[in-house]
Amino acid sequence: MQYKTIVFDLDGTITDSGDGIIHSVLYALNKMHVKKPDKHELESFIGPPLKDSFINICQLDDTSADQAVGYYRDYYQAKGMYENHIYEGIPTVLTDLKQKGCTLYVATSKPEIYAKQILAHFDLDQYFTGIYGASLDGIRSKKGDVIHYALKEAQLTKLEKTIMIGDRSHDIVGAKENKLASIGVLYGFGDRVELETAGADYIAVTTEELKEIITKSK
C-alpha cells in the first residue's frame, strides 16, 4: 500500500450532515430576515467555510455574516449536529484500514469542537489518531489551512504516504496546497466534474471503491 496515513474530510465523506446544516442555515437566515436560497444554493453550504458561504451565496457583508454564523451555531449546537447519519459502509472502511496498519485522521472545515462531538456521538472517534478542524474564531477555516494545521499537529512529514479524502473541490485544492494526493468521493455532495476539475488523483463512487483505491495503491 502506497498510502498509510489517511486524512478524511467529515461532512459528505464520513457522515451525511446535509439536513442538520441546511436546517441551521435556514434558521439563521430566518433570524436575519434574509431570503431563502434555492435548494442547490443551500446544498452549497455543505463543506466550505460557513462564513464564506453566507457572504458568497447570500451576499451578506462581513458583519452580517458573523451574525448569521452565530445564529447558525445556536441551532446547530442544540439540534443540527445530530440531524446527521453515517454513510453506509464507512465503519467497515475505517475498521479495514486500521487492521491493515493505516493511521487515520480527520481534517474538516467544521469547527474542531463540533467534529469531535459528532464523531464521539457516532462512536467513530475510536478510529482516529487525531481530529482536526476549523477554529471557532474563523482564523483557521480554509481547508488548506486546516490540512496544514493537521499535518503540523500530528507531525506528519511523509507526505508521499499520506492521502486526503473529500467530497468537494476545496478538499482537493486543500490537499494540493499541502502537496498531498487526494481521492474525491461521489457519494457525498460534490460531483465528478467538480472533483476532476479540482484535480483529484482518484475518484471513488462508493465507500467500497474508496477502500479498494487505498488498499490497492502501490
Number of domains as seen in the coordinates: 2
CATH class of the largest domain: Alpha Beta
- State the share of residues found in helices, binned by percent: 40-55%
Number of helices: 10
**What shape does the CA trace take?**
globular
Q: Please compute the radius of gyration using only Cα atoms.
A: 17 Å
Number of strands: 8
What does the largest sheet look like?
A: 6 strands, parallel
Can you give keywords for this protein?
single chain; 218 residues; alpha/beta; Rossmann fold; DNA polymerase, domain 1; 6-stranded parallel β-sheet; two-stranded antiparallel sheet; 10 helices; 16% strand
List the helices and strands and how they pair.
Layout: E1 5-8, E2 15-16, H1 18-32, H2 39-43, H3 50-58, H4 62-78, E3 85-86, H5 90-99, E4 103-111, H6 112-121, E5 130-134, H7 143-153, E6 162-166, H8 169-177, E7 181-185, H9 192-198, E8 202-204, H10 207-216
Parallel strand pairs: 1-4, 1-6, 4-5, 6-7, 7-8
Antiparallel strand pairs: 2-3
Helix pairs in contact: 1-4, 3-4, 5-10, 7-8, 8-9
Describe the structure.
The chain is an alpha/beta fold. The chain has 2 domains: 5-16 and 85-216, Rossmann fold, CATH 3.40.50; 18-82, DNA polymerase, domain 1 (Orthogonal Bundle), CATH 1.10.150. The chain is 47% helix and 16% strand. The protein has 10 helices and 8 strands. It has helices at residues 18-32, 39-43, 50-58, 62-78, 90-99, 112-121, 143-153, 169-177, 192-198, 207-216, and strands at residues 5-8, 15-16, 85-86, 103-111, 130-134, 162-166, 181-185, 202-204. The strands form 2 sheets. Strands 5-4-1-6-7-8 form a 6-stranded parallel beta sheet, with helices on both faces. β4, α6 and β5 form a beta-alpha-beta unit. α1 crosses α4 (62-78) and α3 crosses α4 (62-78). The radius of gyration is 17 Å and the shape is globular. The relative contact order is 0.18. The mean pLDDT is 95.
